[in-house]
From TrEMBL:
PROSITE patterns in the cross-refs: 3_HYDROXYISOBUT_DH
Gene: mmsB
Record keywords: Branched-chain amino acid catabolism, NAD, Oxidoreductase
Pathways involved: Amino-acid degradation; L-valine degradation
EC number: 1.1.1.31
Residue span(s) of domain 6-phosphogluconate dehydrogenase NADP-binding: 3-161
Naturally occurring in which organism (per UniProt): Bordetella ansorpii
Name by which UniProt lists this protein: 3-hydroxyisobutyrate dehydrogenase
Reaction(s) the record says it catalyses: 3-hydroxy-2-methylpropanoate + NAD(+) = 2-methyl-3-oxopropanoate + NADH + H(+)
Length: 296
């Protein structure tokens, strides 16, 4: 088993760290929120007073942070990379801009460190169950070292390409997810407005050419699927503001590559309007409310 430093114990990071403890690894954890650190120490981890203290002597460093500025700020601004001694493996599971991942990855390589960007898909439920999908960017050598640890937190591991590729694949997937959810919501709202039962319409779509993940597994209409956020007041799940963040990353990547993403931009604007209306903390499937709100 390995000595692992885990930095960032939010809704995703905490259960991921819990699974590593269950697998028998020795974890040292750090987060700015004391309560989350306490939960992990009660599970058997050791608390560190700083990120620098957490990485001292670690064989593997894992970070799960909110955004690009936090990852760059930690590894480059606070120069955490200088505190990590080769041959330590660095795994960043945050979802950030590909350019940021490449920048930090290049700095790690210059330091003689193997590093992968390994953003995840699967949500908090997947993090708890240990069934996450990891979308990895980095060298074959680094992935080979990371794979045994990733397999203890997830079920599927894809190698997207070199440094930054994991982030590109993740934001492409989430851009499509945002588009699909907005489109599914629009279609269901249209059907209901014309007198259809949303459950019946969802069943028809699920067996027809419009079938997609939203209609089959994560329906945005309340009471169509009892275990989805839509049937629980849109609580939990993947927040609207998180989807908006990922759509923003897709827009940045499109600008960087001079690529056209008109539907991605439309979806970003729809989620921005939804967030500005006070729904930023609700699950992203609550976008259906944009189509069902009655004019005042």
């Amino acid at each position: 088993m390995s000595s692992i430093a885990f930095i960032g114990l939010g809704n995703m990071g905490a259960p991921m760290a819990q699974n590593l403890i269950k697998a028998g690894h020795a974890l040292t954890v750090f987060d700015l929120v004391p309560a989350t650190v306490r939960t992990l120490t009660e599970a058997g981890a050791r608390a560190a007073g700083s990120a620098a203290e957490a990485v001292a002597g670690a064989e593997i460093v894992i970070t799960m942070l909110p955004a690009s500025k936090h990852v760059e700020g930690l590894y480059l601004g606070e120069d955490l990379l200088a505190r990590i001694e080769p041959p330590t493996l660095v795994i960043d599971c945050s979802t950030i801009a590909p350019d940021s991942a490449r920048k930090v990855g290049a700095a790690a390589q210059a330091r003689g460190l193997d590093m992968v960007d390994a953003p995840v898909s699967g949500g908090t439920g997947g993090a708890v169950a240990g069934t996450l999908t990891f979308i990895v960017g980095g060298s074959d050598q680094a992935l080979a070292r990371a794979r045994p640890v990733l397999e203890q937190m997830g079920r599927n591991i894809f190698h997207a390409g070199p440094s930054g590729a994991g982030q590109v694949a993740k934001i492409c997937n989430n851009m499509l997810l945002g588009i699909l959810m907005a489109g599914t919501s629009e279609a269901l709202a249209l059907g209901v407005a014309n007198g259809l039962d949303p459950k019946v319409l969802s069943d028809i779509i699920a067996k027809s050419s419009g079938r997609n993940w939203a209609t089959e597994l994560y329906n945005p209409w309340p009471e169509v699927m009892p275990d989805t956020p839509a049937s629980k007041g849109y609580a939990g799940g993947f927040g609207t503001d998180l989807m908006l963040k990922d759509l923003g990353l897709a827009a940045e990547a499109a600008l960087s590559a001079r690529a056209a993403t008109p539907l991605g931009e439309l979806a970003r604007n729809l989620y921005a309007l939804h967030s500005q209306g006070g729904s930023g903390g609700l699950d992203f499937s609550s976008i259906v409310r944009l189509y069902t709100q009655k004019p005042k």
